[in-house]
Design a protein that fits this description.
Inosine-uridine Nucleoside N-ribohydrolase, Chain A; binds beta-D-ribofuranose; 8-stranded mixed sheet; binds calcium ion; 313 residues; alpha/beta; globular; 10 strands; single chain
Amino acid sequence: MPALRKIIIDTDPGQDDAVAILLALGSAELEVVGITAVAGNVPLKLTEKNARKICELAGRPDIKVFAGAIRPLMRELVTAEEVHGKTGLNGPELAEPAMKLQDRHAVDFIVETLMGEESGTITLCPLGPLTNIALALIREPRIAPRIKEIVLMGGGFFEGGNVTPAAEFNIYVDPHAADIVFRSGIPIVMMPLDVTHKALTSARRTQAFRDLGTRVGNATADMLEFFERFDEEKYGTDGGPLHDPCVIAYLLKPALFKGRHCNVSVETTSELTMGMTVIDWWGVTKRPKNALVMRDIDHDGFFALLVERLGRL
Ligand code: BDR
Ligand code: CA
């Protein structure tokens, strides 16, 4: 058994966030030290509740879930009910969670965990807007060198944006927070739309979750069937992109992904291109390489991993 990697998942569930959480909870190589919720796909009240629903679905009511920022640093909250449904987790019937929300604020939890645990042992996995992570860095800058790595879903370059022509949802919702994170000097692995748009579900792949014959398998298939319909219509594909699970899959099997080290800068001033991640893929500037930007995925390997790990729950 390989050594446990300790992670904090920062998230705004969201069906694809939910699958990412299930993948982490189904993987013995990962220790989920906490889940921090942020406002994003739907308001915070729903994202923190959805995170608890998913822990219970996975049979892990022991996982600590914390509520964080209620809105982005500078801008009004933009949500995505048109993609994820009114609850953020439309699709399966999931009971109201019995497990309690933790009292501590998510930002306090992130700071205290990073200051309390051995330096270089905690990986942050942001799956939503970066508000909580930026607030933690502002609150206690000494956490920055103690973070092992940030592996995040956000941004896009060759694919353009999914919420505006230039910007991907997570970065668009809180571009100022993203700017703080990308300037932090912390090692970053980035899963932009360029790679997540290649992690497409299909009727056959969704059926494979149902064929598990478990509660988790059926709920996942129900989630994906709801979630896919929006992007199938938008992009004309058979299936939708499973963005957030790419983050967890990378921790488990980095060889599934290919990318390169680049400078990534976030647009925070132009309304037209607000939240665009300007990726210097061709190295045409002298700006420092601040992220490993992924562009390719072994999608068959990725789905095989998902089915196998969710099958353990
Ligand atoms: C990202 O936005 C959300 O809708 C998804 O959960 C994912 O994190 C994709 O742009
Ligand atoms: Ca998300």
